[in-house]
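Title: Comparing notes on inverse folding

I've been comparing how different people in this forum approach sequence design from structure. To keep things fair, I'm posting one structure and asking everyone to reply with a full sequence. Here's the target:
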């Protein structure tokens, strides 16, 4: 048996790796590349000084580098740099920005060797030991291992996540790998940028946040926005630059009184300003339908103090708070106490909003040095302080260990469907949290938007399976009711109760979804078969073939998200097929829109290396004639930025780029992306929906209809308005030619007397 732990003092003998002779660079370029690589490696060794306990650790890192450098010899990245610069950059992120140790640095250097060369995991284990080999294996993609109809993106992510059961460092290294890929995404073609950026915002940004890597999470979000919506990203970036002087002027007035007060009380501290991230600004603009100028909390003041060993950190945080509020008055409803109840990812801080000079509100964040490092470096810093036995670890242990335990519980019985697995894991990454209490006063951290049913499964799967309702704050409350921070909840159960299919529509946690589906799978497989037989028989009677467009009408009509859910409901008698013929005859928005003309581009692949590769990166525009439909989830209209996805039936489904489902599909099925753009139109109208709100008065409905149909000659399909407490609000469905025409209509409606707000219904912004 080969020695699993060889002496790192001896020189490794590496098998030759075949290299295409034509791809070899000229000697001058080769020398320049060698010098650049050596400089990057020397810098990495310098950065590893805090984690290396002796020369043996340095030697292990050197051997991993030599091995990887030889394995990737002659290979270039899309940017033209030697490929080894990528593992070197990943290793640097691992040690500098995340704070992992020697074995993690070695795994980062070797993470692409098995995937991209002839070396095997066994070779890695022989040279570097079982633990490093295990991490490299978890980081290796599964190319060619699955059938064509399975999402490789989902399978690759599933394999990486499953390693959480053994070693969370694999996920941390993968985050570092993705971070460097995002930093160098500019060298990739547009459709690859869309795929990678969508996958990043859908999964990797929430994962980084859940592991406490706030700085990396923020960079993921900003870079994803940069490549998905470059114009909006650049506009916000420019406006931040234009208003920088104004922010600095405010800080110069705001900070000095605080600095003086803290010094008077002998507190050692650092004070700095933090500008809101570009993605956060963009997200708030979309969510609240406001302009950049209407966002007042563009930055925050951060105070990081050096704690006294004799006083608890919590007490010192509140002491700093009291000193600040002696100067500036706080806004009572904007205090965020994550000191007594930290976030589930370990984040601890005290946030408050105070009114500063000239009546401007400003957020102040108060942290100790330990809290600050955990906030920026997350999981690795958390365990560092745990090992050192410094303050605050008891609560962090509980929250972090609880999340890992829940995650591992879900991973112990993973779904065979990798896409479903990915969705369930996404649910485990909820970042907005509430804190609720059991009847005994035990606190439970739940995702924002959680229901009574989610809480029942949080207590125990048996309680969830037999839940019939709850007492929330001593009041009888139904299962589907949303719970809020501070609620005290007692679950009511009955042995006769059991999970129903519709429960899946009223939960937000992966734990609840997993247990409900497990029960329904055991109980409902016969219902699916029975429902399918009933539906096929009815369709045969009506003489309608089973096609994709049929299910696009039927599933929403029966409030089902999938064929299996629809069949299960039908087989169980929950729904009936009365009126099916009417549903099939209805015109959907997608059918109305199929006469618009779109131009599709064929996705291209990288071939070769160097200059030859760049010549082959031209995108072929052959105006491919696809059958296409408009996605009803976001209702794109001419002028919107759109992207297409090939369906199993060979059609292209067109979504707005900022549609939640578009991001999800890009993250799960990036190989199905079809770039699309509007080229011409053959009809004069398309369905769009606007929301209106304002002060109610006699004649407001008449005025709205007169403006839209009378003055603008626009056809109204539906109008729903209701009034309460002197306020009216509702929706208007109308037919327009393009997004520009819709903007004109909205501006005109906004000018009507009493109308305060007019918005187009937008797709959900991805968190």
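Reply #1:
Here's my take.
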């Amino acid at each position: 048996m080969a020695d699993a732990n060889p002496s790192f003092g001896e020189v490794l003998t590496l098998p030759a790796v075949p290299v295409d002779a034509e791809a070899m660079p000229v000697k001058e370029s080769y020398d320049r590349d060698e010098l650049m690589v050596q400089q990057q490696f020397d810098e990495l060794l310098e950065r590893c000084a805090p984690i290396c306990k002796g020369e043996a650790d340095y030697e292990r890192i050197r051997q991993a580098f030599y091995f990887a450098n030889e394995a990737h010899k002659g290979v270039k990245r899309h940017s033209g740099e030697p490929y080894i610069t990528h593992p070197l950059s990943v290793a640097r992120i691992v040690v500098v920005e995340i704070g992992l140790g020697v074995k993690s640095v070695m795994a980062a250097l070797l993470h692409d060797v098995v995937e991209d060369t002839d070396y095997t995991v066994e070779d890695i284990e022989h040279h570097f030991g079982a633990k490093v080999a295990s991490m490299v294996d978890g980081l290796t993609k599964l190319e060619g291992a699955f059938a064509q109809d399975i999402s490789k993106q989902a399978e690759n992510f599933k394999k990486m996540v499953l390693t959480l059961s053994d070693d969370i460092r694999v996920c941390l290294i993968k985050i570092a790998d993705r971070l460097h890929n995002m930093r160098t995404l500019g060298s990739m073609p547009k459709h690859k940028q869309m795929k990678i950026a969508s996958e990043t915002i859908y999964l990797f940004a929430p994962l980084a946040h859940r592991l406490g890597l706030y700085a990396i999470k923020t960079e993921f979000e900003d870079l994803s926005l940069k490549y998905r919506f470059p114009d909006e990203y650049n506009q916000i970036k420019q406006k931040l630059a234009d208003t920088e002087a104004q922010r600095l002027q405010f800080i110069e007035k705001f900070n000095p009184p605080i600095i003086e007060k803290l010094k008077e009380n002998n507190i050692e501290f650092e004070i700095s300003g933090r500008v809101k991230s570009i993605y956060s600004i963009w997200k708030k603009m979309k969510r609240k339908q406001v302009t950049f100028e209407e966002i007042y909390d563009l930055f925050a003041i951060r105070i990081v103090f050096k704690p006294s060993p004799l006083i608890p950190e919590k007490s010192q945080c509140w002491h700093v708070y009291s000193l600040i509020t002696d100067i500036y008055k706080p806004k009572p409803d904007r205090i965020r106490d994550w000191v007594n109840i930290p976030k589930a990812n370990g984040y601890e801080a005290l946030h408050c909003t105070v009114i500063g000079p000239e009546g401007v509100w400003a957020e102040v964040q108060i942290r100790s040095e330990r809290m600050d490092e955990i906030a920026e470096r997350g999981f690795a810093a958390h365990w560092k302080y745990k090992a050192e036995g410094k303050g605050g670890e008891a609560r962090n242990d509980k929250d972090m260990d609880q999340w890992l335990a829940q995650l591992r519980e879900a991973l112990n019985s993973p779904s065979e469907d990798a896409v479903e697995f990915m969705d369930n894991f996404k649910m485990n990454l909820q970042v907005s949290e509430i804190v609720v209490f059991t009847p005994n006063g035990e606190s439970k951290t739940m995702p924002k938007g959680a229901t009574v049913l989610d809480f029942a499964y949080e207590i125990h799967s048996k309680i969830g399976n037999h839940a019939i309702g709850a007492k929330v704050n001593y009041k009888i409350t139904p299962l589907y009711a949303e719970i809020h921070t501070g609620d005290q909840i007692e679950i009511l159960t009955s042995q006769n109760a059991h999970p129903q299919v519709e429960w899946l529509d009223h939960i937000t946690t992966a734990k609840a979804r997993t247990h409900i589906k497990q029960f329904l799978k055991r109980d409902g497989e016969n219902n699916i078969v029975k429902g399918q037989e009933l539906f096929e028989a009815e369709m045969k009677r009506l003489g309608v073939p089973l096609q994709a467009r049929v299910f696009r009408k039927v599933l929403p009509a029966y409030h089902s998200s999938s064929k299996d859910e629809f069949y299960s409901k039908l087989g169980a008698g929950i729904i009936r097929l009365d009126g099916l013929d009417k549903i099939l005859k209805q015109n959907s928005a997608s059918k109305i829109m199929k006469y618009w003309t779109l131009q599709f581009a064929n996705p291209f692949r990288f071939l070769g290396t160097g200059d030859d590769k760049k010549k082959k990166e031209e995108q072929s525009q052959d105006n491919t004639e696809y059958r296409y439909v408009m996605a009803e989830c976001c209702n794109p209209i001419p002028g919107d930025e759109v992207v297409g996805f090939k369906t199993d039936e060979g059609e292209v489904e067109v979504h707005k780029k900022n549609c939640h489902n578009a991001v999800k599909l890009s993250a799960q099925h990036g190989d199905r992306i079809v770039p699309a753009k509007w080229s011409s139109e053959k009809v004069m109208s398309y369905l769009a929906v606007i929301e209106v709100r304002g002060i109610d008065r006699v004649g407001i409905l008449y005025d709205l209809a007169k403006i839209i149909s009378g003055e603008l000659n626009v056809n109204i399909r539906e109008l729903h308005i209701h009034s309460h407490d002197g306020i009216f609000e509702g929706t208007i469905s109308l037919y327009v030619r393009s997004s520009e025409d819709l903007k004109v209509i909205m501006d005109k409606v906004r000018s009507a007397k009493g109308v305060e707000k007019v918005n187009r219904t937008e797709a959900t912004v991805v968190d």
